[in-house]
Amino acid sequence: MAVGSRTIELTKIAAAALADKLGDEIVAIDLSEQLVLNQVFLLVTGSNEPQLQALSDEVQRKLAEAGEKPVRKEGSGSWILLDYTDLVVHIQSTELRNYYMLDRLWNDCPKIELNLAKAVR
């Protein structure tokens, strides 16, 4: 089953929100052929807890503007998970991103092209 167009749209909105708040290593993984409940994992790395919270807040704000609210929000500190059913956003510290390596776990799954502009720092 392919990822639905609405899920792709929400993924791109969330990814743009993460880029606006200077999230690093933004990756969208297409899980539609692997999982029944979720279609996309959107991963991002933040450098500290305030940035992780800002990333979470911005994604929730932008997706609320698009008419979506998370079904579930878990975690705080170094890993925040926002569950929008078909889209799950993982906001992680560098340490936890490197430890759990979700990118590597789902390495065989296709990536979704996000076409994000590179932020100048």
Automatic annotation (TrEMBL):
Any GO BP: negative regulation of ribosome biogenesis
Alphabetized GO MF terms: ribosomal large subunit binding
InterPro entries: Iojap/RsfS/C7orf30 (IPR004394), NT_sf (IPR043519)
NCBIfam families per the UniProt record, alphabetical: rsfS_iojap_ybeB
Family of this protein: Belongs to the Iojap/RsfS family.
Designated name of the protein: Unannotated protein
Lineage of the organism: unclassified sequences, metagenomes, ecological metagenomes
